[in-house]
Amino acid sequence: MRSTSPLGPELLLALVGSRSRPLRAQLESGLREAIREGRLAPGARMPSSRALAADLGLSRSLVVQAYEQLLAEGYLTARRGAGTFVAHALRQRLDEPRAAAPAAPRYDFFPGAPDLAAFPRARWLRALRDVLRTAPPSIFAYPDVRGLPELRFALADYLRRARAVIASGESVMVSSGATQALALLARALVQLGHREIAVEDPCLPAHRALFAAAGLRVVGVAVDEQGAQVEKLSAPVLLCAPAHQLPTGVVLSPRRRGALLAWVRQGGLLIEDDYDAELRYDRRPLAALQGLAPDRVIYVGSASKTLSPALRIGWVVLPEQLRAPFIQARLVDDLGSAALPQLALAHLLEHAEYDRHLRALRRRYRLRRAALADAVARHLSGCSLSGADAGLHALLHLPGAVDAEELLFSCEQAGVRVYPLSMHLIEQPPSTDAVALGYGNLTASEIELGIRALAGVLARL
After folding, report:
1. CATH architecture observed for domain 119-355
2. Are 394 and 386 contacting, i.e. CB atoms less than 8 angstroms apart?
């Protein structure tokens, strides 16, 4: 039976008529179990005895007696004029069996993290208020699995203007982040008969894992100072980040861009990961490759670096032959993304609020990048940075190779977390001579203290 009293929490209690076990005993046992399991949290208000009796079809005197028993046992407390509550004293006792969560590092240089404090709360709240005030009731139905038209067309306008992408509202699909877009693409490629995909080596291990999970064989394409060595491509499909490779930060050279376009025009299929191209500092913006071969390049982006990964908003611009299998994969996956965040982002794009936010972000991240460069110069003699002219991370080159596991363990002990280059390689050798350092979600003082702690670790290795 389920209690649905407005004066307390809804609670499912299994009460059955039985001569062998009285209803009062069943009620007491059910309440104890709900409290022990955390379904009734410490401090939660209990329904009044009259309301609970009505909800469960019991006499009020029986519920009063059960409450009195649990009050005597310490499970409940009563406050005159306020009601009956689950005892706060139970919190420590209930939490004791739980394993302690590992302590988060004081200084986490995760290369993909934006400044979470920079989320434009006031702008986002205004956008939500505006769209809620004007949106029709139909917005609360299941959303268009491709993404709401308002956002798809706003994204198409923005990507044409800011990234030179050839896009229309029909070619843009909205996803729950870029990761879901890649997972759906992998399944669509398999549906079309593809069995192999190339990825940059090094790259994000998660990307390799999701392609393998879809049934694609993953092969690596080595990355050097000019970017991916596209002249060595043998697979029919490639995932590549031409504007700012992760984790090296290398920009694909003009010669390699030309070679990649030639490969595409000869029948190759490119997935262009444009994850942080809007965050640039020392160079002019590079146009997306998709604009030069829209029939053979799949463009993927997201709001995770520019707004917040918590929004789970990504997008993909698809050639026509991939749209139907992509939509089919999305239908099987989750029936579409939440409507209100899509409308809010569309509002920011249409009113140039997104552009203003990006300009502020560039100023903020430029200062943090300068703080990283300064801290490395002062505390890490013999080390150098590369790949820092855009994005949220740089690659720190060490004076020599160190054991990757020992580096990770020693850094964790010192309260700092770094990301060895070796962990991004397909073969993952035991030693590393470089680490990826993200600076987006660390203040200047945190960067200084974190680099100082890293210097102490490297001095002891």
Report:
1. 3-Layer(aba) Sandwich (3.40)
2. yes
19: how many CB neighbours lie within 10 A of its CB?
5
- Chain position carrying tokens 């949220």: 392
Look at the block and give the residue holding tokens 């003082």: 445
Spatial CA neighbour of 159 closest among 342, 290, 311: 290
Q: List pLDDT tens digits, range 313-337.
A: 999 999 999 999 999 999 999 999 9
CATH architecture for the domain at 2-95: Orthogonal Bundle (1.10)
Q: Which two tokens stand for residue 361?
A: 């972000």
Report the pLDDT averaged over residues 174-182.
Answer: 96
For 410-450, the DSSP string reads HHHHTTEE-EEGGGGSSS--SEEEEEEEE-TTS-HHHHHHH
The answer to whether residue 240 scores a pLDDT higher than 90 is: yes
Q: What's the confidence (pLDDT) of residue 416?
A: 97
Q: Which of 79, 80, 97 lies closest to 88, judged by CA?
A: 79
223: which 2 tokens? Answer: 């990355």
pLDDT of residue 4: 45
H/E stretch holding 218: strand 217-224
Per-residue pLDDT reduced to its tens digit, 250-302: 999 999 999 999 999 999 999 999 999 899 888 788 899 999 999 999 999 99
- What is the rounded CA–CA span in Å between residue 61 and residue 10? 21
Q: Which CATH number fits domain 107-113+357-460: 3.90.1150.10, 3.40.710.10, 1.10.600.10, 3.60.15.10?
A: 3.90.1150.10
Distances (CA, A) of 369 to 10, 259, 364, 452: 51, 32, 9, 16
Q: Where do the structural domains in the chain lie, given as residue ranges?
A: 2-95, 107-113+357-460, 119-355
CA distances (Å), origin 27, targets 35, 56, 334: 12, 10, 39
Sign of the torsion angle spanned by Cα atoms 326, 243, 450, 448 = negative
Looking at residue 395, the DSSP 8-state letter turns out to be E
Q: pLDDT tens, 397-420?
A: 999 999 999 999 999 999 999 999
Q: What are phi and psi of 452, to 5 degrees?
A: -65, -40
Rounded to whole angstroms, what are the CA distances from 423 to 226, 271, 342, 403, 404?
Answer: 21, 23, 34, 12, 8
Decide: pTM greater than 0.70: yes
Question: With 50 as the cut, is the pLDDT of residue 135 above it?
Answer: yes
